[in-house]
From TrEMBL:
Family annotation (Gene3D superfamilies): DNA methylase specificity domains
Annotated GO biological process: DNA restriction-modification system
Pfam (any one): Methylase_S
InterPro entries in alphabetical order: Restrct_endonuc_typeI_TRD, Restrct_endonuc_typeI_TRD_sf, Type-I_RS_S_subunit
Name this protein carries in UniProt: Restriction modification system DNA specificity domain
Domain of life, per lineage: Bacteria
Residue ranges of domain Type I restriction modification DNA specificity in the record: 2-176, 217-384
Organism: Streptococcus sanguinis
């Protein structure tokens, strides 16, 4: 086995730069003309696409499912495949230019910590972390002597990846189920009435609520977010005490929210009120206002990350209710260089509270779904750790799995 540069094997195509010259190619709505999903990093991570690109775009930025996409700015060092759409400028499309390397093996090594660490180290040489074509091609990878050995390694790793993908698919289905249930209860108000019939469609009484400017079921209430949830802002950790070696407490930054992954720790003393519980809803307050449920114990909030947690509503319902306000605010400030979510913005949010007699059923259903989602995400993190431990062992011959 030899160490060789990626540039010996690959060619790169840059993604689409979104600027004044290309803005006309992008739409919020998918139709016959704007048919390609825009493959941004956050969208690829959760397979939820909100921007679409015209069919008139240059074909060089279009990725097909067999292509490998590698992130070069922002969250550097993530590899994706199975995506169809227009790659954003924050990523490359990676293509093989030789048959010396198996494509599955290339994808496997690009997903390894061995490559990711090199990519991030190279990118840090820029003022704004940015992995250039030259930097990427200078990354070294271990290359087995035979294609058969490459296939054996990638097959074993792909077995783990398949389990990870299965869990992701299950979670997408669980999320869709929860969203459908939420729409029935809190948008259409067709929850089961005392006779088991859909409330609003069966003539259930509705009353107009002036703050919401819409009708809600009689007996239901409206409360300010701060009256129904614990809202905790992050602690202003000093970067002087940060480390990546695991010393001290894990610190959640905005970039960690979507992936539920920690890369920084702090030895600074911090109060327990900043500690996060599994299932808490986290929101990033700068740039993209990322939202997600946290799945790890004993982590602490950094500044510009806010935790929302309620014992009056399931956290899934709480997230679904506040998400439209957060996304609307994100969109309204996107014209500035960096958008900011403020305390004032959050205090302007009101949420709908059902009658007490419905709360047990609501908690039971949504908490069960969220618990299963979190369990699958936790299992995926364990599988990822196993994969990242096993891959270098396979590549250097310390472990052999048939």
């Amino acid at each position: 086995m030899k160490l060789r540069c990626l540039g010996d094997f690959v060619e790169l195509r840059q993604g689409l730069a979104i600027n004044k010259g290309s803005a006309h190619l992008v739409s919020d709505i998918q139709d016959i003309t704007y048919c390609y999903p825009l493959l941004r990093i956050a969208d690829m991570m959760d397979s939820n696409f909100s921007k679409f690109v015209s069919k008139d775009v240059n074909s060089s930025v279009i990725a097909n499912p067999q292509d490998i996409i590698y992130t070069r700015t922002g969250q550097i060092g993530l590899a994706f495949r199975g995506m169809q759409g227009v790659v954003h400028n924050n990523s490359f499309i990676v293509s093989l230019k030789t048959d010396e390397l198996e494509k599955d093996y290339l994808y496997t090594v690009l997903n390894s910590n061995f490559v990711k660490k090199q990519a991030n180290s190279q990118a840090k040489n820029s003022v704004q972390p940015d992995l250039t074509h030259t930097m990427f091609k200078s990354i070294v990878i271990p290359v087995p002597d035979s294609r058969e050995e490459q296939n054996r390694i990638s097959k074993n790793i792909n077995n783990i990846n398949q389990k990870i993908r299965t869990n992701i698919q299950i979670n997408q289905e669980l999320e869709a189920m929860a969203k459908t249930l939420y729409d029935y209860w809190f948008v259409q108000f067709d929850f089961p009435d005392q006779n088991g019939k859909p409330y609003k469609s069966s003539g259930g009484k509705m009353v107009y609520h002036p703050e919401l400017k819409r009708e809600i079921p009689e007996g239901w209430g409206v409360e300010n977010l701060f009256n129904v949830a614990e809202v905790q802002y992050g602690y202003p950790f000093s970067t002087d005490y940060f480390n990546s070696t695991g010393e001290g407490v894990p610190v959640i930054r905005i970039r960690d929210i979507l992936g539920n992954d920690i890369t920084n720790y702090s030895t600074e003393e911090v109060e327990d009120k900043y500690k996060i519980n599994v299932g808490d809803v986290l929101i990033g307050m700068d740039g993209n206002f990322h939202m997600n449920y946290w799945i790890k114990e004993d982590c602490y909030l950094n500044q510009r990350v806010v935790k929302v947690n309620s014992d009056k509503l399931p956290n899934m319902v709480l997230k679904y209710q506040i998400e439209p306000f957060i996304k609307l605010r994100e969109k309204s400030v996107s014209r500035t260089t960096v958008g900011h979510l403020s305390d004032k913005d959050l205090k302007a949010i009101n949420v709908i509270i059902p009658k007490d007699k419905y709360l047990y059923s609501i908690f039971e259903r949504f908490e069960s779904i969220l618990n299963n989602i979190i369990k699958n995400q936790q299992q995926n993190q364990e599988l990822t750790q196993l994969r990242d431990w096993l891959l270098p062992m396979l590549m250097n011959g310390q472990v052999r799995v048939e």
